[in-house]
Amino acid sequence: MWNGIIVSLRQELIVTVILFLLLFIKVAANEPRPGVLLNGINVLLAINLVLGFFPGPDAVLFNGMFHTDRLIVLEKNILNLGTLIVSLQAYDWLKTHRQLLEFYMLLLATLTGFFFMISAGNLLMFYLGLELSTIPLTALSGFDLEKRQSSEAAMKFIISSAFSSALLLFGISLLYGATGTLSFDGILRHLDGSAFQLFVFILVISGFAFKISAVPFHLWTADVYEGSPVPVTAYLSVISKGAVFFIFVQTLFTAFKPLVEDWQNILMLLSVLTMLTGNLFALRQNKLKRLLAFSSITQSGFILAGMVGASKTADASVIYFVLIYIFSNLGAFGVVALISAQTGRETIDDYRGLYANNPLLSWVMAISLFSLAGIPPTAGFFGKFFLLIAAGGKGNYVFITIAALNMVISLYYYLRVIKAIFMDPQPAPIGKLTIPLLPNIAFLLCLVGIFVTGLMGWVYDYIYSLSIGL
Amino acid sequence: MNLSLLIILPLLTVLTLPFCRGRDQVRWVSLAGVTVQLIVSLALLAFYWREHAAHGATRFFFEYRQPWFSALNIEYHVGVDGISVSMILLTALVMVGAVLVSWNIDTQCKEFFVLLLLLSAGAYGFFISLDLFTLFFFLEVSVIPKFLLIGIWGSGPKEYAAMKLALMLMGGSALTFVGVLGVYYHAHSFDLARIFYEGGIPMPVQRLFFPFLFVGFGVFSALFPFHTWVPDGHSSAPTAASMFLAGISMKLGGYGCLRVAIALMPEAAKEYSPIIVTLATIGIVYGAFATMMQKDLKYINAYSSVSHCGFILLGAGMMTPTALTGAYLQMISHGLMTALFFAAIGMIYDRTHTRMVEKLGGLQKIMPFIATIFVIAGLCSLGLPGLSGFVAEMTVFIGSWQRPESGYRLATILSCASIVITAVYILRATGQTLMGPVKDPKYNSLPDAGWNERFTGILLVAGILVIGTAPFWLTELINK
After folding, report:
1. Using a CB-CB distance cutoff of 8 angstroms, which residues of chain A are in contact with residue B181?
2. Mind listing the pLDDT tens digit for each residue in B133-170?
């Protein structure tokens, strides 16, 4: 029996082991130098990623609280990959940071939380995982200890998270009252679409919408993203969001299957609002981090659009898009993180003439932004295309037209950044920056990911073969 | 013959370029790349003829299928027929010209040629695609290179022009995208050839999605009122990019209108035909009048492109076999002619550093070769018999006249009349730029065309002459 538990929980256990290892290093008398430590931790994370690919059996543990199958293992591997890239990119920032080990402990704690959340077969387990990740995340966003903005971000984040958790918890407890169970299978059997159940359902969806910063629950996003340290922002916008999307799809596709018509309409509305609002706010931003924050809201809108499809294609496209989004967004954030750590400059105007001295960074940024905008041959094109194929599958032609036109609006602000980098002259452009080895590996991973995940069809086919339909 | 070679060759050239040192290596490698491409395209033509003679019944040749996203029934599916072969030849010719006129580019020349070659890879891919997904993929691939080419190496309000072009073309793509999805939902496949043969897209669906596809592709080929990116984009672009934009890129739109929108949904096309013809006629006449008011040589050619591309759409809207042949002919003829025109304007601009008609004058004596190709391009544009423009426009008019309804007749007459306006602006521009006294004494010391420019000119003029004097081989190629 223990064997079964260990094999099924292997990904969670590895992360926890690394976490404890770091804890022991922390309490040991003499801490190694930051460079050595960072290399070591990144090697551990890479090993963690590789070990995640070992196949294991599908399993249901703890009376249906925790379940795992090949799709969930894949999702966890995607999160592992993203965490590794974030960690590689944080090198410059962490090298001089005193609380390096704490950063990683908190980071791995959130990752464990996400793992349990994704594997949840019960709303209680889901809530537990979510909170396990939210609290360390808040600490992380306040991790630039000497910056006021950073602690402000942490404060905003904890308050809005608490609010959304409260909504979610309220919804969950009412749901328990309505159905008498919290397990996904039980909820599935007891849902009949009464008005009370719909109300409860809307509360639960609001909780989710907060986490993926869907409009009108997005107000915390820009400020928190702007104030947090860049690597944390990257983590928030990609890993945290991706994880919530994974479980969101699963919950809707399994537990709330009987309410499919209702949640399709709700999601469609949320999606249109999210895309439009994110886009319109992004148009006017001059700070790159805020721009990427609003662009990430828009991307959430596109993912929601895909979910509206409520089919096997929809599930596959959402997971596929999150994978692509990890590469493209982390590519962009990696450049921002590097430049911010070395020069402290973060506005679009600062990026003018970047190409003159830093061609590599410029190309990474440009390719990542093109991928976010959905222009071929980058993977973003395929991701968006398949999301919208899923979205329009049930005859929502007006909806996919709106989504397609939103792609045009979003192209404008991505091109603005590219214009600044390649075309605008600046008297004092950013000088030649040295890129350390670890961020270089991260950029390579992002670029390879952006091209391979798109052009190689088997990536999508593999995800599709594991996906769940309705 | 493996058609993917057409995409792989430019990509190989692109991959070689980062390893080159110095401008000389870069441009020679690029030239070698496009020359090989031209040879391959000529070989393709020869192979095509041989195959066609051997078994003429098949519609597409050198077909190749490779499942791409099998979960969604998406294939990498390529193949050619006579029309695509001729478009590929056109692309190859213009690309050789484009590389040659960019010979002396001095800022960031490596990046310039990389982007230019990527642009051509997109065009080749588009013309050989037989799968709607692949086709759309290659249509959009060109957005990045276009934006960067105009924005970095352009002149005048280049950032504005680059942004406008990118956004408008992306808007066109977005409409096309919805249209493509509409077809996919009802045919459950992106296979162009299969949908074409089996038909079966229900009429309400056709009515709904035809406008998306047609307008979407129409934006690329300057369909009125979505033509506004053309003058700004073409005028601000560097010479090679102008040649490519006007010569090839706008043809992607025309090709898409004909091969995708009209071919897949012929019934809807018939219904919408009056609207298409009206818009095309407005584009033709409006473009011609707008050209008359222009003072900048590049703007003159850009607006005249709006007018000339109107003939493609007119032919498409009339839908008689002759008019459709004319539309294809016009695509090729206009591609060669406008590339030649932009090349000539670029050569003049490189030397005099102005494109304003009133500041130029008497260039004929100073640079006779450039003046000659300028005149040939102009005459082709106004439809002089013996040059390709005449053949193409004449075919469109004959085809259009076959529609007896009075509205179509009126449209044909108006479009015919626009040729007179064309003559006015072309002759005026030619007269002011080339003839008369030399406006500025410093022009006297300017050199005539170098070897690379001569080669470009001769290549493109040869193309125009061959089509103009012996149109039958091209017509045969298209009609088969």
Report:
1. 388-389, 392, 400
2. 999 999 999 888 999 999 888 888 888 999 999 999 99
Option in A393, A395, A457 nearest B69 (CB): A457
Contact A305, A286 (CB under 8 A): no
pTM, two decimals, is: 0.92
- Alpha-helical runs (H) found in A240-358: 241-254, 260-283, 288-308, 312-343, 354-357
Mean confidence (pLDDT) of chain A: 88
* Set of chain B residues whose Cβ sits within 8 Å of the Cβ of A423: 151-152, 158-159, 162
Mean pLDDT on B193-200: 78
* Rounded Cα gap, residues B30 and B475, in angstroms: 32
For residue A69 the two structure tokens come to 């199958």
Q: Tokens for A376, please give them.
A: 């071929």
Q: Which residues are CB-contacts of A38 (< 8 A; sequence separation ≥ 6)?
A: A91, A94, A95, A100, A438
CB of B71 within 8 Å of any CB in chain A? yes
Q: Are B120 and B99 in contact (CB under 8 A)?
A: no
Q: Residue A375 and residue B208: Cβ atoms within 8 Å? A: no
For A200, residues 6+ apart whose C-beta sits below 8 A from its C-beta are A171, A174, A175, A178
Portion of chain B with pLDDT greater than 70, in percent: 99
CA distance B48 to B92: 16
The distance between the two most distant Cα atoms of chain A, rounded to a whole number of Å, is: 68
Pairwise CB contact (< 8 Å): B181 & A419: no
Contact A404, A396 (CB under 8 A): no
Q: Report strand pairing: A59-61 vs B61-69.
A: unpaired
What secondary structure does DSSP assign to B294-307, as a single string?
Answer: --BHHHHHHHHHHH
Largest CA distance in chain B: 69
**What 3-state DSSP class applies to B74?**
strand
Contacts of A192 (CB under 8 A, 6+ apart): A258
Residue B426, token pair as written in the block = 């072309």
B149's CB contacts (< 8 A; 6+ apart) are B112, B115, B116, B119, B237, B238, B240, B241
Amino acid symbol at B472: F
Strand partners, A59: A68
On whether any CB of chain A is under 8 Å from the CB of B159, the answer is yes
User: pLDDT at residue B432 above 90?
Assistant: no
Task: Give tens-digit pLDDT for B299-353.
Answer: 999 999 999 989 999 998 888 888 989 999 999 999 999 999 999 998 888 888 8
The pLDDT of residue A305: 92
Q: For residues A336 and A330, give the distance between their C-alpha atoms in angstroms, rounded to a whole number.
A: 10
Size of chain A in residues: 470
Cα separation, A56 vs A7, whole angstroms: 7
Structure tokens at A341: 């750590």
Per the structure, the count of domains in chain B is 1
| Angle subtended by helix axes A457-466 and A437-455, to nearest 10 | 80
Tell me the nearest-neighbour CA distance from B137 into chain A, angstroms: 6
Measure the CA–CA gap between B175 and B101, rounded to whole angstroms. 34
**Six-digit token string for A254:** 């399994």
| Residues 6+ away with beta carbon under 8 Å from B327 | B254, B258, B311, B312, B313, B314, B315, B316, B396
Domain residue ranges in chain A: 2-466
Torsional sign, CA B203, B209, B211, B214 = negative
The pLDDT tens digits for A362-388 are 999 999 999 999 988 899 999 999 999
Cα A467–chain centre separation: 19
Q: Is B57 exposed, middle or buried (0-12, 13-18, 19+ CB in 10 A)?
A: exposed
Domain with B33, as residue range(s), is 5-479
DSSP-derived letter for residue A33 is: P
Cβ atoms of A330 and A82 within 8 Å: the answer is: yes
B117 in Cβ contact with B149 (< 8 Å): no
User: Mutation test of the interface with chain B: which of A363, A401, A410, A451, choosing the one with the most B Cβ atoms within 10 A?
Assistant: A401
